[in-house]
Amino acid sequence: MNTCLLIVCSETIPSNAGDGRNAFLLAKTLAAKGYDVTLLAYRYNHQHKGFENVDGVKIVRARYLAASQLDRFISRVLLLISALRYGAGQRRWLLFGAFPGYLWIWVLGIVMGRSVIFRSTLVGFDDFPSLQACKGILRMATNRLAGYYALNSEFEKSFRLDFPSTPIFCSPQGVDISLFGGKEELLEALRLTLGIPHDTFVFIMVGHMIERKGFPEIAQWLASVSKPFVLLHVGNHGAAKAEGVDFHAERISAVTCEVKDILGDRCILVEPTASIASYYAAAHAFIMASYAEGFPPNTLNEAMASWLPVICRRIAGADDYLVNNKNAILFSTRDEFLAGVEALMTDAELKKRLSVQSREFACARLSIDTISSSLMSFWDEVDVKGR
């Protein structure tokens, strides 16, 4: 068993980027099991440290420059140098998605004789049909992969079409189950702090307020609900420049204004927070309206671990994990969505059943402890076979 691992992603904690948070969670879990884990990412915010040890994980951040094409080229070189320096002693390299310069790192790992696994993060962004712009180099690099980490069968099928012999680890990304739950002791106190009336139904959504996440459409649909409710949104509302790079902050601000215009006081905005578990605890149901995700995303996993009934759009990967009216309510149309909302707000037995099913599913399928061990067992097997 090889216990030395380099994980590379675009950004990680304290950033709230989902992939970076999950990369750190995986690294922390493996470190607790005795693995020597280094996490390499970009340093978009210059206030973040270039090197630190957090929960047993060595975090290295390469400086990212965004002012010009030359700056972005230099950033890739700096990341490459960091990978060469800090990955030299790490036999296994796990790449989290198509971050800037990912193919450089990928090829470097192969040249250095490392066991490399690539994990796609988002349908339409870095699944293999979306990565064909670099066909020649990509095909060469992919043929030398130790394995591919597919979050769901959609990723797996699209990869398998072009690379039928490469081993695939198909699994959701995990969540630390122990951090979520405990609704009763947190519910009333937080709702009082937020000014939410006792008899008001609370829906929660988490993430950037952008079109891909279903905004402002979902606000327009919710506006027709006559029963008292609040949409609690925890995420970015236009302050992305705080990370050091302008990730369409102006558009996020514009969408946020649209949502507030539509819902008014029925929408409560909370900026990204490390105390996300308490906000799940303050809600009655979770809405995931995204049109594309690396399914299932962190937010869905966290919500299900928090005993929350889930209303989820039918997108690529959803059918692998969710069954309509069993462990979630699935929708494709406005009418299906509103029917699900109505059912949760009026049918206490349905709400309770979906709540229990969410938690049971999270414990059975989404535990980072189990998933991390399965990933390492998969890696042991493919390395023995000499991929």
Which CATH-level-2 architecture of the largest domain?
3-Layer(aba) Sandwich
The portion of residues assigned to helices is 40-55%
- Tell me the number of helical segments per DSSP (H or I, 4 or more residues long): 14
Structural class from helices and strands?
Answer: alpha/beta
Number of domains: 2
Report the C-alpha radius of gyration, rounded.
21 Å
Biggest pleated sheet: 8 strands, mixed
Which of globular, elongated, flat, extended, rod-shaped describes the shape? globular
Name the assembly state.
single chain
The first-to-last residue Cα distance is 15 Å
Mean pLDDT: 91
Helix and strand run: EHEEEHEHEHEHEHEHEHEHEHEHEHHH
Give me the CATH superfamily of the largest domain.
Glycogen Phosphorylase B
Query: Which spans have pLDDT < 50 for at least 5 consecutive residues?
Result: 241-245
Beta content comes to 15-25%
- Within the largest sheet, what's the order of strands? 3-4-2-1-5-6-7-8
Number of strands: 14
- The first-level CATH class of the largest domain is given as Alpha Beta
CATH level 3 topology of the largest domain: Rossmann fold
Task: Describe the structure in your own words.
The strands form 2 sheets. This protein has an 8-stranded mixed β-sheet, with helices on both faces. 48% of the residues are buried. It is of the alpha/beta class and 387 residues long. Helix 7 links the parallel strand 9 and strand 10. It has 2 domains: 189 residues, Glycogen Phosphorylase B (Rossmann fold), CATH 3.40.50.2000; 189 residues, Glycogen Phosphorylase B (Rossmann fold, 3-Layer(aba) Sandwich), CATH 3.40.50.2000. Helix 1 crosses helix 14 and helix 10 packs across helix 13.
